[in-house]
Amino acid sequence: MGQLPGATRPAQNDWLTDKNDDRAPDEGISAERARSLGSSAEQVASRESLPMAPRFLPRGAVVGRYVVDGLLGEGGMGVVYAAYDPELDRKVALKMVRSDSDPSLEGRDRLQREAQAMARLSHPNVVAVHDIGMHDEQLFLAMEYIDGITLRSWLLRESRPVRQILHAFLQAGRGLAAAHASGLVHRDFKPDNVLCDRRERVCVTDFGIAQAIAVPPSMREGHELAADSPWTVGNTRSLIGTPAYMTPEQYRGERADASSDQFSFCVALYEGLYRQLPFAGETWSQLAKAVTEGRVREPPSRSGVAPRVHRAILRGLSVESSKRFASMDELLAALSRNPAARRWRTVGWVAAVGALAAVPLAYRYARSQSQLVCKGSEQKLSGVWDDGRKRAVHDAFIGTHKPFAFEAWTGVERVLDAYARHWVAARADACEATQVRAEQSVSLLDLRMVCFDERLAEMRALTDAFTAADGDVIAKAAAAAQGLTPLVGCSQVKALLGRVAPPSDAAAARAVEDVRGVLVRVNATRLAGKYADAVPVIREATDRAERTGYGPVIAEAHLQEAFLKEAQGDHKGAEAVLYRAAWAADAANDDRSRAEAWTHLVFTAGAAQARHDLAPMLNEQAMSAIKRMGGDDKLEAVRLGNFAVTLGGQQKYDEALAEFERARPLIEKVYGRESVEMITLLNRVANVYLSQRSYERAIETLERARSITESSLGAEHPLNGGILNSLGVLHSNMLRYDESARCFARALELNEQPTAHVNIGDIFNHQGKYEEARRHLERALQQREAQVGPDSPRLIYPLTGLGQAYFGLRDFPRARQTLERALLVKGDPQAGMSLATAKFTLARALTEDPRATAADRKRALVLAEESRTIYQNWKDRSPLDDLDFEAMKHWLSAHGVHP
């Protein structure tokens, strides 16, 4: 009979048995058998958790323009019918997606978007989606009718040679690769979701339609897999898929991506070739442990599988997605290569046609020679990222004796290995596009090679910095490695063709290249956190850039100068330099520098300085600039995040969260799910929740960030100190002083920064522990002055807290001196509450100091009323601020001042 797309459950209700299995559906089936038969989360969860059987459509029912001909199958995601399309006179498969698979409006919208994406995908190895629509509030898909069987049934029907099995899977793999190129991820690849027609054409179906299903108690950890399925953890994350084919990241509750499809494909291929699954386990926990630890079974002897095929499968089964193939195309290429077969085909051809083969062989020889021209890119990594450089960086990191040094090294090695591997592959492909495939011009190849050389120089400068690493450098090493310019820019034709040509004069061109070399080193020094080392160099480089008169390098120099000022907290100075960068880029038609300048202005002016009136205009400029350069995922993620911060500063919290959600998939794509950029995003989201007083959601978000930090950078990494500091702020806002103090104390152990000293000092002030507060706040002031100088706006925070501590200790002279200095600090628009606190504390000191004059007491009332005005108008008060406000109103009332 014909097997339809999505008909994972045969019509006669044999839930966990194959069509060739003659046992009754209710007989016991072993865990291994259930997994090998592909019992999906859809099927098992549907059997146990759905409240009732679906209502089937009768023959002759009309759905859209389609006429139902009969029921073909049912699965957890829906029911599949044979149907007739009268307009095009053809048979179709009609899939009615369950309305209860995700009843939310958001869930339905997502299903419809993915169905529309499927409909745009056209490939011979993907089941075509002809039409989508709604019928009685149910989404339906009209799909290509495949007259055949599932790949699982095809494998079980007879014993097949390795070559034939591999051929079938290669077809399925090409379908997956085509889907990935269109932005679709399958999420539940297995032999049951692959169909073979009578001509043995293989097609993949059900892309992106699998949904998470709530799990009944009988499916929890420890039960047999035959009655088990994915679970929902704390109502915050869920697993989808089929147990045997699920990836380590799915078992951890993380989002599935194209690399996850690659892993599931290799599980299915291993099973098809060796007639056993690669991972053993009789319970969920056993299977999950085997998968997440990468314990692949030894294959049976004499399987006939070539070693190169087995090696490719093992790589695809890597626990870490970064160690799998870069794409399905690369995996398929590794599976397809057969040097012995090619060699014997050549020998046979020569023997058969003799001299007549001279022309084809000459062409083949010429082609191979062209390919040889494109080899050797890996040799250019010598001294940049080879074994010697790796040893030098490793020794430098470990030599710091920091507790997080080894984790920092392994993280950097992983990121730079991947970057170097992609650089070699992309550069070789660019060469072959001209020299072998004749797809691009020589002039475009030259532009791409210049781009690759620039990326290599950037990588060299960073590894140079790493070989002289100290504790501060390795603390920022992961972010620095992830901050390397993405290689995708070297393939963006529009952006490359739009680059301004270098000066025609040889001396001028050399001067430009010299400046660019300096800027690359400045960038690496800044990324490594050595700001003081970079400042004098960037000043000289900017002067030299101006003297060249070459617009693009002038813009690049101003950008580096602005980034350095921003890193040091000089937002106003950075803003001025960013405008100069944008103007220089405009004059030179330098699209990339223009986009970078406007994107960073969104944060520097719109967010950091709370210039809310400017924020929308700056954001529009950034969007336009990014679009003009042909798009850039990295810059777009930065723009979205920066604009979200400005929205949060305007109390537009829902809009801010929406922008952060738009940035999240771009960050995952560019940097990865466990990157420093993702940790930064989660911290920013937590800040929005904090402002909304959604403290539990903020804590949950920060705990996710902390989990990523510990798993990717280690528990002792200083970045954990920042997260713990934020958690301490949250607990203090919930008036959990002891928990807050513990977080701040641990933050100081990991990363002694002034912010943590200020925060723990504030907690001690609220608890009346003024001596403990004084010690921390004096240390904070000392550190902050060393960082930013004696006149920085950021000094208001330690000065205010320290003034409170002195007042609590009844040290009125020091309290008055410190608080007077706090009132002189200007320029931080976010410091309103600290200013109010400083005014009120000084008012109290002026009235309670035995040496205070009548003028002092008169001034105290003015200060207290000014403080009350700030408190009343400040929209972002915390519960701690509310307590202070109540104390102030009580004090004013006691001194005869009433609202």
Question: What's this, in brief?
Answer:
This protein has 899 residues and is an alpha+beta fold.
> How many beta-strand elements?
11
- What is the correct CATH architecture of the domain at 150-336? Orthogonal Bundle
3D shape: globular
Query: What is the tally of helical segments?
Result: 37
CATH superfamily of the domain at 150-336: Transferase(Phosphotransferase) domain 1
Largest sheet: 6 strands, antiparallel
Distance separating the two termini: 84 Å
The CATH topology of the domain at 150-336 corresponds to: Transferase(Phosphotransferase), domain 1
Would you state the CATH class of the domain at 150-336?
Answer: Mainly Alpha
Beta-strand proportion: 5-15%
Radius of gyration: 32 Å
The portion of residues assigned to helices is 55-70%
Side-by-side strand order of the widest sheet: 1-2-3-4-6-5
Tell me what the structure shows:
The chain has 899 residues and is α+β, with helices and mostly antiparallel strands. Among the domains are: 31-144, Phosphorylase Kinase, domain 1, CATH 3.30.200.20; 150-336, Transferase(Phosphotransferase) domain 1 (Transferase(Phosphotransferase), domain 1); 339-372, no CATH class; 379-497, no CATH class; 754-894, Serine Threonine Protein Phosphatase 5, Tetratricopeptide repeat (Alpha Horseshoe). It has 37 helices and 11 strands. It is globular. This is Tetratricopeptide repeat-containing serine/threonine protein kinase. ATP binds at residue 95.
